[in-house]
């Protein structure tokens, strides 16, 4: 069992230019290409990363304590720099914790790293892409046993567990509009909220599995609250 975890989440927008290249639509204006992509969430291949949120935590004396929380985003950094900064954090091979990461975040990360020719040996330090392994804990897969009808959204699970859930009036579908409006700070705050909710759901799962007893679970929750209060 690892003593270091890294919880992460991506925020993305459709990659209109990439879709145009792949579908030979180079002569079409962007608005036409975007319309041809459709209104549903674009395939992982055509997602452009605009924010990467991550929370690192370490265990000592059986208690989990956060060591960092950030949400690097544009326009501070371009997509290549976002990816380079994130994969550098995998050099010490932490266990990854995600919500729907096997289906979305990890494939997007790999596609975009390859697009920008970013060396990412940290992603190969452990078999993070192995759905059957424990190097990446995907709570969405794990809690539903990969049964489609048992799947829940992060917001649903968080609210069921009496956690804050997503900020009012914003979800993944709203990110593209926020990005177009230049509301990068709002996107970063939204991404951080997803990361914190994912971490707290994971702590609850660790309690369920018996890897945290009740006192250490309570102490881990308090360590998070103290960490967040120091950031405000």
Commentary on this structure:
The protein is α/β, with parallel strands linked by helices. Helix content is 44%, strand content 19%. Helix 6 packs across helix 8 (184-209). The longest helix has 26 residues, at 184-209. The two termini are 32 Å apart.
Quick gist of this model?
The chain has helices at residues 16-22, 30-37, 79-88, 101-115, 139-144, 154-160, 175-180, 184-209, 214-231; strands at residues 4-14, 47-60, 63-73, 95-98, 136-138. By secondary structure, the chain is an alpha/beta fold.
Whole-angstrom Rg: 18 Å
**End-to-end separation:** 32 Å
How many helices in DSSP terms? 9
Total strands: 5
The gross shape turns out to be globular
Secondary-structure blueprint of this entry?
Blueprint: E1 4-14, H1 16-22, H2 30-37, E2 47-60, E3 63-73, H3 79-88, E4 95-98, H4 101-115, E5 136-138, H5 139-144, H6 154-160, H7 175-180, H8 184-209, H9 214-231
Parallel strand pairs: 1-4, 4-5
Antiparallel strand pairs: 1-2, 2-3
Name the descriptors.
232 residues, 44% helix, five-stranded mixed β-sheet, alpha/beta
């Amino acid at each position: 069992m690892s003593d270091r975890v890294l919880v992460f989440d991506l925020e993305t927008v459709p990659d209109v230019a990439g879709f145009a290249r792949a579908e030979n639509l180079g002569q079409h204006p962007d608005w036409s290409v975007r319309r041809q992509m459709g209104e549903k969430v674009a395939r992982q291949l055509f997602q452009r990363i605009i924010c990467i949120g991550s929370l690192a935590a370490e265990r000592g004396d059986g208690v989990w304590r956060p060591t960092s929380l950030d949400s690097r985003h544009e326009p501070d950094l371009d997509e290549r720099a976002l990816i380079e900064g994130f994969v550098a954090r995998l050099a010490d091979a932490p266990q990854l914790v995600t919500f729907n990461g096997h289906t979305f975040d990890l494939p997007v990360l790999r596609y975009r790293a390859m697009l920008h020719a970013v060396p990412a040996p940290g992603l190969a330090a452990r078999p993070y892409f192995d759905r059957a392994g424990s190097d990446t804990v995907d709570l969405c897969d794990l809690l539903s046993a990969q049964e489609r009808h048992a799947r829940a959204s992060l917001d649903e699970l968080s609210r069921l567990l009496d956690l804050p859930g997503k900020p009012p009036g914003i979800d993944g579908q709203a990110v593209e509009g926020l990005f177009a409006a230049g509301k990068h700070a709002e996107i970063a705050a939204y991404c951080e909220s997803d990361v914190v909710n994912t971490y707290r759901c994971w702590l609850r799962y660790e309690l369920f599995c018996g890897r945290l007893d009740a006192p250490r679970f309570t102490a881990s929750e308090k360590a998070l609250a103290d960490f967040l209060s120091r950031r405000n």
